[in-house]
Amino acid sequence: MMFEKILVPTDGSEYAGRAVEVALSLARELGSRVVALHVLDEMLIMPFEVLEEEGKKILAEVRRRGEEIEVPVDEIILFGNPRHDMAKITTKSGADLVIIGTHGRTGMEKLIMGSVAENALKTVEVPVMLVK
After folding, report:
1. What confidence tens digit (pLDDT) does each residue in 65-105 have?
2. For position 74, which CATH number holds?
C-alpha cells in the first residue's frame, strides 16, 4: 500500500511531537506529503486569536522540520472539535494514512489513551498509526 498523504494532527504536546517525527520520517522514505493539522478546540475557553496564533506557530515548526529533510508539508488550521471531526478532516484532506500521538493536552493523559486518538481509531476509514 502506498501512502501519498500522511495526516498528522498536532497540538504541540510531547506525544504529538513524536507523531510528527514518525510522519516526517515515513514521508521521506515513501516520497509522501505530510498534512499537518491543528484544530482550534471550540471547547477551550481562551480568546480565538490566542489559540490561532499558537496553532500557527505549531504548524510552522512542522513545516520547518519538513523543509530540513525535504518533505513537503501542507498546513491546515481549523476551528472545531478535534475529537469529533477527525474522520471528516481526514476525508477532506485526502489523506490515506493518519499518524497520531496517543495522548494530547488532557488532564488525564497519563491514565488513558487520548480521546482524539481513540476516536480516530473508531471513525477514520484509512489506516491509523498510533505513536506513544
Report:
1. 999 999 999 999 999 888 888 999 999 999 999 999 987 55
2. 3.40.50.620
